[in-house]
Fold this protein.
Amino acid sequence: MLRRLATSCLVAVLGLAIDVQPAVARTRPHYGGTLRVETTGDPWQRPNGLARRLVFDGLTTIDADGAVRPILADEWESENGSHRWQFRLRAGVHFHDGTPLTADAVVASLMVSCPANCPWTAVRAAGSSVVFTGDAPMPNLPALLAADDFLIPLTVSSDGKTPNGATGTGPFQVNGFNNGVLSLIANDTSWQGRPFVDAIEIRARRSVPDQWLDLSTGRADVVEVPAEELRQARQQHLSVVVSQPLELLALEVSDSGALANANLRASIAQAIDRAALANVIFQKEGQVTASLLPQPRSGYAFLFSTERDLNKAQQLRGGITPPPLSLQVEGAGAMQLAAQRIALNLREAGFNVQLNAPASQHADLALITLAQQAADPAAMLEGILRNQHQFSAFDSDPLSQYKAERDFLDRKTLVPLLHLPLAYAISPRVRDLQLRSNGAPDLVNASLEASP
């Protein structure tokens, strides 16, 4: 069985096949103009706030093919069985305020962004290099450092002062924030070269219906399309770019209090009807899963059963009637509907479940989405396990990854449900907008049609 698993994994693991429908370039990209983007969330949120990749750079990045590429670090090497990594910084890079990029600045930034539960044990500056050491091997570190959490903002300027606002080395810099609109302007001295557009305006916390209205009236160029709205967007003939199913919809299950009993947690996992969530709530745009990683990334997701078994759920409960359970939900719309469906499933299995407001504390259950920040399967898995504070070191081969994921999922503290695509609708004047390996729009390389 394991030999067949290894063969399947090696054939299927590598490569990211993002299913995009990019705007077709008719001539060479045009410089100039203001790209107008709208989002339901905070453009600075972690992970994957739209402003973060525009203003900040990381030591590494993941390209469209899923390979790790240099950004602020131009080369790196590992020693001592991946217990030590040295990243040499690119020369001549400056933050937006003119402060030079140094190893000390990178270390200071990383210590702020990752004060605990980091992929490394210690980080320090060594000349023009940043050195990471770990008590355990860190084979995935170059890919992990490409994650949004480890982008490098300036924490202390060259004159010893705290920067006034977000300051990075990226292709855009902050120009202001007024009436809910974040204004970014092109960094003409960017070490990567000047971006095509002169400015990007990001209107935050905008509802999806308002976003679509603004797109239709020419007041927006890039808007969000939730997975459950993809069919409607296509029916309205919107120009849409779509990723493969990447974002994980999952149920967090507390392992304390009323659910300290492992059989009760296992009962909950058996009771959920994933097919109904995918077909009814998410309009067949979600991919049913019981695995943390999508099948194209891992090659072994099919080994985790997605079938609902209500009889087994009731047997696992064993006649125990726990006190009422609280279910916390992040987001509105389809997330609320999905939570209601899950609550109904669990009531059928003998649980009394009550939906709480998102601000509720100490919930027994939480319906969440987890953004995928890496293309490499091992780095993706490590990122999820660290997010859940349950990471155990594993080797980079597919069999070790499968065992690590199986061991984690057997605890029933996180129940994977669906992998959902990320999608954006664009105006006719946007050209060459494609999606990054994590499904986020690559606004840096987009351009606008010249005004007539």
Notes: Residues 57-169 form a domain with the D-Maltodextrin-Binding Protein; domain 2 fold (CATH 3.40.190.10).
